[in-house]
Amino acid sequence: MTGQTMPIEKSNILLEVRDVAKEFDVSKPWLNRVIERQERQILKAVDGVSFTINRGETLSLVGESGCGKSTVARLVCGLYTPSRGSIHFDGMDMAKAEGDVLRKLRARFQMIFQDPYASLNPRWRVGKIIAEPILVHGLGKPGDALNERVGELLTQVGLSPLDAEKFPHEFSGGQRQRVSIARALSSNPEFLVCDEPTSALDVSVQAQILNLMKDLQREFGLTYLFISHNLAVVSHISNRVGVMYLGRLVEVADTKRIFTMPLHPYTQMLQSAIPDLKMTGKQRTPVAGEVPNPLTPPTGCAFHPRCPHANERCKRERPEMIDHPGGGQVACHGVEEKRINIIKLAA
Amino acid sequence: MSSITSLIQGCALTARGGIDMVALVNVVDSFRRFFDGDVWYSFRRNPLVILATLAALVGIIGAAFAPWIAPHNPFDLKTLNLLDAFSPPAWTELGKPQFWLGTDDQGRDVLSTIMHGSRVSLVVGICAVFLSMVVGITLGLISGYVGGSVDAFIMRVADIQLSFPAILIALLIDGVARAVIGKEHHDQVAVYVLIFAIAASGWVQYARTVRGSTLVERNKEYVQAAQVIGRRSLAIMFSHVLPNVMGPVFVLATLHVGTAIITEATLSFLGVGVPPTQPSLGTLIRVGNDFLFSGEWWITVFPGLALVILVLSINIIGDWLRDALNPKLR
């Protein structure tokens, strides 16, 4: 149903992110800097991240708080402009798109936000909220057809067409997230960026929303970039997983590979932090140390101060992403030098 | 199915003429919600506010319908009789029954002049508040939403403006207007100059309030959602952010009406406000002030009392509104 005007030989890659970085200037005001004799302070929220997402698949980004995963989501959506690198959507460089092209491009991707209590305008009726993308992208005009489309979207996400009349405060968190999904779907997008869409919800509701998202993906052939810190959620929904640490990707691989054979020491550490009844009494790699201050990231591999396998090379040299024979890519000197034990876990 | 679609039609995006039954239901519904709600409950439980509202309503209705309900027409020279001048209020020994609150030096009925005077006062007050609201809200929205050097510039201008007293700015504008327009035409535009002068000194409050709320709203996800959809900044500012920052503005505006009326009265009292041919409450007080020491107290006391009651009741309503709309104080 999507992109009939596209060339026949379409590449399977929908989104390509190449060496993207985002820096924030977090320095104090000019006068304070002069008086206190401080330098400008630059926060590298994302520092050279590259990945691709194929059509119809779900790539999840996981990592601790502050590792830059939400910044990647916002970069992909165009809420931030990258300080370096480029983002290609369906072969088009998003930074170079302007005017009408950008407008058409925008209709093809949408975002679902983390907090369902903040992502819907409290003064707007749900019908108006859902119709906004349709009207902005010129996919419909006010009238019966639009109202019916809004009703249809509400039905698709498991709400009633009558709910169009209500205000967001009349809904529960899970229902609001459904409204949010309906809004994201209203411009017939191919690609959805989901920034922790379930982390503000109850566990029972989380499952409902995830299943809804999976159903919609199957129905409309959607592609997801899914941001989460919850590994259980990630294993449920994704085809591939990228693990982020301090603004960098450290490992990307199939979900199965990540969960059964984590290679990077950080992934292993995250893995063993998942509570599991079967693991009772077994040895685990404890989550040691804290995330370093991103204003002054460690030299070399950003993970080396917390890594049990770090050596001199890790402190000096920043590891690159290298293909691994087991599948996927890892950025780790230890894995490259085969001095890290591979832990195999039951699926 | 037809009932469902007709219900959906009511949603706000159907901009069509004629009476839409569903839209009507919505209006009735919002009224019902208002009377069920906290604000109405708090109103009912607050006798002072009910009293203030009644007083303000009497004042506003008296002013709005002054030409029809005032007992005399103080500006119709044919009905004026100099022999009626300086007659005291009706209940005193020398009072005449047709002049309840007495007459002034030209034989004009004080009650009627008060009604006509509060008309001018209210028009100036409300128009000035409206004008400063429009300017203040626009600048505040831009300042808060765009940020950066635009924000810094607008807020520095506001700071400079704030360091002058409102009366001084109004005096300055009035003085400049007199010099530019010329004395003979000044009387015709005096009211507009006054409105502009009071509005120019009042916009800062709105700009600051709106900017503060906008800074909070700008970072909420619904604004980012609108950005992802691809709406322009101006559209986001006015259709998304504005409705969410209006609460404190309404409270501010109510209180500001009282202040604006006082400023107008002060300027008129000082003789730079409206001309004596269309007297406001301030002008009446100034005129009456000349006779205070010769014993004709009613000429200045009654307009003064009317001013106090009007402003006080508006302020009481504003104060109550601030508390009633503040979820933390409920």
Radius of gyration of chain A: 22 Å
Mean pLDDT of chain B: 81
Write the H/E string of chain B, N to C: HHHHHHHHHHHHH
Beta-strand portion of chain B reads: under 5%
Largest sheet of chain A: 8 strands, mixed
Top-tier CATH class of the domain at 111-329 in chain B:
Mainly Alpha
So, the CATH homologous superfamily of the domain at 111-329 in chain B? MetI-like
Series of H and E elements of chain A: EHEEHEEHEHHHEHEHEEHHHEEH
CATH architecture title of the domain at 111-329 in chain B: Orthogonal Bundle
Helix content of chain A: 25-40%
Low-pLDDT segments of chain A: 1-8
Q: Could you give the distance between the termini of chain A? A: 35 Å
Q: So how many helices of chain A? A: 12
Sheet with the most strands, sense and barrel status of chain B: none
**CATH fold group of the domain at 111-329 in chain B:** MetI-like fold
Q: How many runs of DSSP E, i.e. beta strands of chain A?
A: 12
Which class do the helix and strand fractions of chain B yield? Answer: mainly alpha
List the helices and strands and how they pair.
The complex is a heterodimer of chains A (347) and B (330).
Chain A: E1 13-25, H1 30-36, E2 42-54, E3 58-62, H2 69-77, E4 84-89, E5 92-93, H3 99-107, E6 109-112, H4 126-136, H5 144-156, H6 173-185, E7 191-195, H7 203-220, E8 223-228, H8 231-237, E9 240-245, E10 248-254, H9 255-260, H10 265-272, H11 312-316, E11 322-323, E12 329-330, H12 333-336
Parallel strand pairs in A: 3-8, 3-9, 6-7, 7-8
Antiparallel strand pairs in A: 1-2, 1-4, 4-5, 9-10, 10-12, 11-12
Helix pairs in contact in A: 4-5, 4-6, 5-6, 6-7
Chain B: H1 2-9, H2 21-36, H3 38-44, H4 47-64, H5 66-69, H6 110-146, H7 148-162, H8 166-181, H9 183-218, H10 221-229, H11 233-270, H12 281-289, H13 298-325
Helix pairs in contact in B: 3-13, 4-6, 4-13, 6-7, 6-9, 6-11, 6-12, 6-13, 7-9, 8-9, 9-11, 10-11, 11-12, 11-13, 12-13
